[in-house]
Amino acid sequence: MMIAPKPSVSTLKPYVPDEHQCAIKLDANEAKPFLFPQGLQFADMPLHRYPDPGTDALKKSIAAQYGVNPGNIMTGNGSSALIELVIKTFVAPGEVVISFKPSFAMFGIYSRIHGADFSEVDSEADFSFDLDKMITAVRSKRAKLVILCSPNNPTGYLIPKAELVRFLQSVDALVLVDEAYMEFADQGETLVHEIGTYTNLIVTRTFSKAFGLAGIRLGYLFANPSLVGMLGRVQEPYHLNTITQVIGCMAMSRMAEVKTYTASVRRLRQEVMVRLRDLGIKTYPSSGNFIWFETEQKDLYQKLIAKDILIRAFGGQDTCYFRVTIGDEQENNAFINALKEILS
Question: Fewest CB atoms less than 10 Å from the CB: which of 10, 144, 320, 328?
């Protein structure tokens, strides 16, 4: 007897991380470790007990930092797990989830796993988002859930807050705004403090990027208590291990260091942007910890691997698109110098 997966999974293409081992890794938008230079001690943690099921201490730490109520917060194993939880909770098979293209690949993968009809609206030529086109698509397709990534991964485009507020007022759908990279942008553009006004709004955040803690898989979301309660019915019990909860609380208490780090990334991002343009490479404005660029050098990805440097390639027709993470000064210099050699 052959055991087959459900139809929504049988044709699914999995998300495949790049497994090339290079000395300089600028492909996954990871940060340098900086929060805990002295290491962490786990001996006093009650690891023989199940973790706090409500992650209450962590929620209080997050709430204090953002000036919201703990009841507006939910935690999860990375913001991507929370995005899947939103789809699993609110979107029935056959209902429509819609996003822009290109954006984070897992939006579509999670939607299809749960039997949703995933639809995409193309970005503009400069990779900005036309929210009027999205409003039209949401209404015509009667979308149940809209997922907007801002700053967008992989392009770095930041949707102006005023445009997002207008969008929220214009659609009869649940709207999830993925703010995984917001710490690298203008903080005035966040929608976190709009959750009390718009009952159809969910905002996700992560510890993987600005906090440099991708390895602990910790994310959180903001929403009104009613939505949080519905999500809580579906989320598995004891969903976040004790060590992750403790590290999350410690990280939240060190926001001054996070802000210092993100400011340095913004400075280095501008430097790399200028140097890429000086090489004749077309770049696009970015509010993330990465830069989206295009070149006719279609074999750039492989040539950089040969120089022990890994970036992310996204293909293209006449030209190719790439995303490079902003590293430290040494890594950025190595990347630019390698580009000079390849392009000369």
Answer: 10
Cα-to-chain-centroid distance, residue 285 = 17
Distance between first and last Cα of the chain: 59
Residue 36 makes CB contacts below 8 A (sequence gap 6+) with 247, 250
Q: What is the dihedral of CA 338, 342, 343, 344, to 10 degrees?
A: 100
Q: Which residue has the tokens 């052959």?
A: 2
- At residue 316, the pLDDT reads 66
d(CA 304, CA 23): 11
Cis check: omega of the bond before 17, within 30 degrees of 0: no
pLDDT tens digits, 96-120: 999 999 999 999 999 999 999 999 9
Neighbours of 307 (CB within 10 A): 17
Distances from the Cα of 83 to the Cα of 74, 159, 175, 219, 320, angstroms: 11, 19, 11, 10, 29
Query: What pLDDT digit, counting tens, does each position of 152-202 carry?
Result: 999 999 999 999 999 999 999 999 999 999 999 988 899 999 999 999 999
Q: Note the pTM of the prediction, 2 decimals.
A: 0.95
Q: What is the pLDDT of residues 23-48, one digit of tens each?
A: 999 999 998 887 876 767 777 788 88
Residue 158 tokens, joined:
């930041």
